[in-house]
């Protein structure tokens, strides 16, 4: 199974529009971060988590050809605003299966009513098949079991997902101890770490590292990164062993 980091930036992406911050001006490709998303695939399935405003660009670069399931973590725009660009997949595959908390499905069906509409549809508008994700209810995409993991982004519920021994968690600030059972024996954890300073709805570096120490995955990649965190190369040197900053277009293999 492979995991391709489609985007690793926080809500504005890096560079931030109009910014003269040294990270935004960096020429290192690892300092250029689209909005956060991953593509997880092997011979049998192809899953994309979140569909932010950079989705089109991400699909062009990654060469993802098919989506068996589009999973959402939550409804914030940096995770959902690209939904219209599923059109090429819809033309090729038909209705695209989307998986999210019922609250998120309701939100998307308001914001993208023409995509969720079943009658009098505008010809050429994409269509989806919505599937509700419930906590403590595992589900399958093409025989691959997916385990939802419940967490909080400030006051907002978010889902992370476990697929085999890989876990993807973003926009997390707190997580109940009862959820840690689902995070046992992980090979690779992806978790959000916004910056060094604390933030009211995101883990900072220290909170992410405390969480990693609790979960003890073999390897961790940090994502949902703000330009305020600093240059990729410099921050990487300050991280503990087996903790890495993810970067756009990084691809890793999970056994
Ligand atoms: Zn976000």
TrEMBL record:
PANTHER family reported in the protein's UniProt record = HYDROLASE C777.06C-RELATED, HYDROLASE C777.06C-RELATED-RELATED
Protein name, per record = MBL fold metallo-hydrolase
What Gene3D superfamilies has UniProt attached to this entry?
Answer: Ribonuclease Z/Hydroxyacylglutathione hydrolase-like (3.60.15.10)
InterPro entries xrefs: Metallo-B-lactamas, RibonucZ/Hydroxyglut_hydro
Q: Which residues form the Metallo-beta-lactamase domain?
A: 34-224
């Amino acid at each position: 199974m492979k995991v391709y980091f489609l985007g690793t930036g926080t809500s504005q992406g890096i560079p931030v529009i109009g910014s003269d911050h040294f990270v935004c001006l960096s020429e290192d490709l690892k300092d250029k971060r689209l909005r956060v998303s991953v593509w997880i695939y092997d011979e049998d399935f192809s899953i994309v988590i979140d569909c932010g405003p950079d989705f089109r660009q991400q699909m062009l670069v990654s060469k993802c050809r098919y989506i068996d399931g589009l999973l959402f973590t939550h409804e914030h725009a940096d995770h959902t605003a690209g939904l219209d660009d599923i059109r090429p997949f819809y033309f090729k595959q038909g209705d695209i299966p989307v998986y999210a908390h019922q609250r998120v499905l309701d939100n998307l069906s308001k914001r993208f009513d023409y995509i969720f509409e079943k009658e009098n549809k505008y010809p050429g508008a994409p269509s989806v098949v919505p599937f509700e994700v419930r906590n403590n209810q595992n589900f399958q995409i093409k025989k691959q079991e997916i385990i939802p993991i419940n967490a909080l982004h400030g006051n907002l519920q978010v889902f992370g997902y476990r697929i085999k021994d890989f876990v993807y968690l973003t926009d997390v600030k707190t997580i109940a101890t009862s959820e840690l059972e689902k995070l046992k024996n992980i090979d690779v954890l992806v978790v959000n770490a916004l910056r060094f300073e604390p933030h009211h709805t995101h883990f900072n570096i220290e909170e992410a590292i405390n969480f990693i120490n609790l979960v003890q995955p073999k390897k961790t990649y940090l994502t949902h990164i703000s330009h305020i965190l600093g240059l990729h190369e410099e921050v990487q040197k300050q991280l503990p062993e087996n903790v890495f900053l993810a970067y756009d277009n990084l691809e890793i293999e999970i056994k």
